[in-house]
Design a protein that fits this description.
The complex is a heterodimer of chains A (122) and B (537).
Chain A lengths: L2 H11 L7 H10 L7 H14 L22 H14 L7 H5 E2 L2 E2 L5 H11 L1
Antiparallel strand pairs in A: 1-2
Helix pairs in contact in A: 2-3, 3-4, 3-6
Chain B lengths: L3 E6 L4 H8 L10 H9 L1 E6 L6 H10 L3 H4 L5 E5 L4 E5 L10 H6 L5 E6 L11 E4 L16 H6 L6 H4 L3 H4 L8 H29 L3 E6 L1 H13 L10 H28 L4 E5 L3 E9 L1 H7 L12 H7 L13 E2 L7 E4 L15 H13 L11 E6 H4 L11 E5 L14 E12 L1 E8 L5 E7 L3 H8 L4 E2 L13 H6 L4 E2 L22 H13 L6
Parallel strand pairs in B: 1-7, 1-8, 2-16, 5-6, 5-7, 17-18
Antiparallel strand pairs in B: 2-15, 3-4, 8-15, 9-14, 10-11, 11-13, 12-13
The chains are: A mainly alpha (122), B alpha/beta (537).
């Protein structure tokens, strides 16, 4: 992909709806989630909704692993990225940085790792 | 009462449909209801997008815009980070243009849209939409409006695993299959279409939308793998048992599809207009072209060292380019793209071609691609080399591959590091042809045929059928001879306001600066419409 194309792609992806961590915090409070870590609450909320029909007998917490515990496949991770971007109303958060390390796709991710990434980006 | 019924048939081609409706095949007429519609209605070949592939083509059909404007080119998009490339999927948020579902619902038309690709997450609209190409695990969250999943779950026999897209299974498209695997493949699509039909039946009855649209995609999947039993030219003089068993099974799919069409048309009622379209046609691919292998031999691409771990070997066998990004200047990202991307260095010393060298580099690359020849006959392998500025002009052109290849057999390329570059296939496999189908029937539809329509002409037809004006920034036009004279008088074509932003909230710089139609373009379209007798003066 050319430099122009890459710039354009980033442009397409960028959403500027003005959502930020503070907004999420307010939303988390109104949803009855723990206010001490609203981003974690939002991520867990998205994951719970996502896997609600998957016949998983597993509670989701900050230690949960997507592949190891929640039986995620690669397509599910892509869907999770979309769902989180929709939840936080932001695109182009750079999830590729989280999902790829040293040119290789990561084997698994924990809720904690996703939350830490979002805290840096939001 | 349904005013407009639109039935999409992924990959449908007159090569097959004519043989199944005119009785020329050994089994006689296989699709009697469609035969009747075709005999009474309007038909034309439908030219697909420059690269005839499901995502760009269906998005063009749904937006009335070419890929250079709507911005979707493939199933997969990638982010080039210099030393590595991150692959992910296009989704509905990448579509830069408003869809007909949105255009219709904001003008108070009720819409049901089922199984169209690139519709997840669902775009803003007030009708009912179930997207296609979504895994069962994510179907509920990607339906609109809220509560629709609970409604369809009440339909007797509903099974989301049968209904939805199975990514693992569908990734086998294009691979050689044993007769047993082929049978299982086709068997899978029979209940799948039944699931979609049952949902269609329910929502048509309960919602009574103005526009009811459904896409059946078993046509594409079955033609990919069983083209050798469908193409009339490939029927062997002495068919074997495997061939006959497979053909019976394949035809049972088309018989079932014909019954679904009959029931949907009947439910829509006698005053409805009915339209069919495919995103592309089909033909047979006879050879494998390993284009990245060729680029490697020509020095444009460096492969990664052979994988040692299972994960590395799986990655090598995947359908995404797996190369040494620090030494690669041009590559094909995916087999479905048939595209060659040139990497332009962002700064001196970074991977890619210096920006100033781009024109000369691309010229040499094109010469090298054109010099790829069949080792047996010395014929060129590449039928056409398409430049993005020629075939994808528009604000989204920058996301298109620099070069799009049309192979001599219209096949898709391989991106894997295997030899040889050109290899005949043991069995002909189905591949996409640029010419799909368009059929119109019902109230006010003229009994005639046209030479060739464009896929971007379908959106104006559907909006006009709903009694809505054609947005002034649409690129397509109403086809000549589609409507009877009486219908033209009753419902003349009107040109209306341009479409709105694809998604509310997008910042201005992301919208197409060239969307406002120039006065010259507007006059050109008005002139065309007047010439066709569609426009009121």
């Amino acid at each position: 992909m050319t430099f122009e194309a890459r710039t354009s792609l980033q442009g397409v992806a960028r959403m500027t709806l003005g959502s930020d961590a503070t907004t999420i915090e307010r939303q988390a409070r109104s949803d009855g989630m723990p206010a001490n870590n609203p981003i974690e609450a939002a991520v867990v909320d998205v994951l719970r909704d996502m896997v609600s029909e998957w016949d998983l007998d597993r509670e989701i917490d900050s230690q949960s692993k997507l592949v190891g515990d929640l039986k995620f496949e690669s397509i599910d991770i892509i869907q999770l990225v979309v769902a989180l971007e929709e939840k936080f109303q932001r695109r182009n958060l750079g999830f590729s940085e989280l999902l790829m390390t040293d040119g290789r796709y990561v084997d698994d991710l924990s809720v904690n790792e996703i939350v830490a990434f979002l805290k840096r980006k939001l | 009462m349904v005013r407009t019924l639109f039935i999409g048939m992924d990959g449908a081609t007159f090569t097959v449909l004519d043989a199944l409706t005119d009785g020329s095949g050994p089994e006689g007429v296989v699709m009697p209801f469609l035969k009747g519609l075709m005999e009474k209605g309007f038909r034309a070949k439908l030219r697909s997008t420059a690269h005839p592939l499901t995502p760009p083509a269906w998005v063009s059909l749904m937006t009335g815009r070419t890929p250079g404007h709507h911005g979707v080119y493939d199933f997969v998009r990638f982010e080039d980070r210099g030393d590595e490339v991150f692959f992910t999927l296009y989704d509905a948020r990448d579509i830069r243009q408003e869809t007909i579902w949105s255009i219709a619902t904001r003008q108070q038309r009720r819409v049901v849209s089922l199984n169209f690709p690139m519709m997840a997450p669902p775009p803003p609209m007030s009708g009912s939409l179930i997207p296609g190409f979504v895994s069962w695990k994510h179907l509920r969250r990607n339906m609109t409006p809220d509560g629709l999943y609970e409604r369809v779950r009440q339909i007797p026999g509903f099974n989301p695993k049968d209904l939805a897209w199975d990514f693992e299974r569908e990734s086998k498209i294009g691979e050689e299959m044993t007769p047993d695997e082929l049978e299982a493949w086709i068997q899978h699509h029979l209940p799948r279409e039944q699931q979609w039909f049952r949902i269609a039946e329910t929502l048509m009855q309960e919602d009574q939308p103005d526009l009811f649209a459904i896409m059946f995609d078993g046509t594409d999947k079955i033609q990919h793998q069983a083209w050798h039993v469908l193409d009339p030219k490939l029927i062997p003089p002495q068919p074997g048992a495997d061939y006959l068993r497979l053909r019976r099974l394949v035809l049972s799919y088309f018989r079932q599809l014909d019954r679904y069409i009959e029931q949907l048309v009947s439910m829509a009622g006698p005053t409805a207009q009915v339209f069919f379209a495919s995103d592309h046609g089909f033909t047979g691919s006879t050879e494998v072209i390993r284009i990245n292998r060729y680029l490697g031999e020509k020095g444009y691409l460096e492969w990664k060292a052979a994988g040692k771990t299972d994960a590395e070997r799986r990655r090598e066998d995947s359908n995404f380019a797996y190369v040494d990004w620090s030494k690669t200047t041009a590559f094909c990202p995916t087999p479905s793209s048939n595209g060659i991307c040139i990497r332009v260095a962002q700064a001196p010393g970074e991977p890619g071609v210096p920006k100033s060298d781009y024109p000369a580099f691309r010229s040499k690359l094109i010469d090298d691609l054109k010099s790829l020849r069949c080792p047996e006959t010395n014929e060129p392998i590449i039928r056409d080399v398409l430049l993005r500025e020629d075939v994808f002009p528009g604000a989204a052109m920058g996301d298109a591959p620099d070069i799009t290849l049309v192979l001599r057999d219209y096949g898709f390329v391989s991106v894997r590091n295997r030899a040889p570059v050109v290899q005949p296939r043991p069995t002909v496999l189905g591949t996409h042809h640029p010419d799909g189908i368009f059929i119109g029937a019902g109230h006010g539809i003229h009994n005639s045929r046209a030479g060739m329509m464009s896929i971007i002409d379908v959106a104006p037809v559907l909006l006009h059928s709903l009694g809505l004006p054609v947005p002034s920034n649409f690129e397509g036009e109403m086809p000549l001879g589609l409507l009877t004279e009486e219908e033209q008088r009753r419902n003349p074509v009107r040109l209306g306001a341009p479409t709105l932003q694809a998604r509310p909230g997008r910042s201005a710089h992301e919208d197409d600066p060239a969307e406002e139609m120039s006065e010259k373009d507007r006059e050109k379209i008005l002139g065309q419409l007047r010439m066709l007798g569609y426009l009121e003066d």
